[in-house]
Amino acid sequence: MNERTPGTPPLIQPVPSGVHRPLWSVMIPAYNCSHYLAATLQSVLRQDPGPELMQIEVVDDCSTDADVEALVAAIGKGRVAFYRQPENRGSLRNFETCLNRARGKYIHLLHGDDMAGDGLYADTAKLFEQYPEAGAVCTGYSYIDEEGNYLWGGNVLLPTPGIISNWLPAIAEQQKLQPPAVVVKRSVYEHLGGFFGIHYGEDWEMWVRIAAHYPVAYTPRELAAYRVHTTNITSRYFQSCQHIKDVVKVINIIQAYLPAQQQRRLKRKAQHNWSVYFARTADMTYHKYNSPRRALEQAMRSFMLHQNKVTAYFVFKILLKVMIRYKQGGKK
């Protein structure tokens, strides 16, 4: 049996001849996110062009929080296909299953707690038509809370739609996207393989890998929503500091995708950017997750990743809070 965390990009097989190929495959990997899955499905169904043009399928990794098949049947009313893994495979293997089960020309891997914004499929299809050389299209996006309320907007990469120039060095410096805002040609996954190696930052590694081989198109319209909540993989990894270990691994992996003369500079830039991000979020670990020890470890690991004024400041700040037993729920 394949390991849960593949050490190399899993093979994505071409669609067999004679199989109907819709334009779209909206593949929804799910694991214990049933509280959000109805909203995810509704966000897709609101803009459904019909089964001739769009495959919609939930791939469940043996969730234990609900009867996911019944939920999909109730919301999808026969329109949404359902596949359940024979056993829990882990997120990367579930993504691999999604990609191999997808039949469409374009794949939107929409996590079961995120949402597609109105117009996402129409707008990205137009961009693929306008820029046929593009291997992927990414869009503006927003962050939402557990109840679906708007929190803030994501990075704006271009003021108007188009191909992102110098995208490889830009995305190699730091993650600038969220998964629901990225649509990829199936042929690209067939060429480059699936997600591998780590469970935090696996998407960033993929976007860098794609950028090394293909142009990427972009629209600044906020056409996707990334949900922030305490039970997703990102939040769990923040509480264990596994996220920093994984990002260090990604930084090393992506060096092979970069021009040799840029590797050293981009690596140091990535180390700086991620260290600042992790240092700043150490306060979140301290307060939101009520975990002073983990917050201090996160601040220290940030400083070890790259020594700068910001990381040094947060090491001192969190250490002081721990020493005086500062109230976890208090003001920062």
UniProtKB/TrEMBL annotation:
Pfam families: Glycos_transf_2. Residues 25-156 form the Glycosyltransferase 2-like domain. Keywords: Glycosyltransferase, Transferase. The keyword Glycosyltransferase applies. Its EC number is 2.4.-.-. One of its GO terms (molecular function) is glycosyltransferase activity. It is an enzyme of class 2 (transferase). This is Glycosyltransferase. The lineage of its organism: Bacteria, Pseudomonadati, Bacteroidota, Chitinophagia, Chitinophagales.
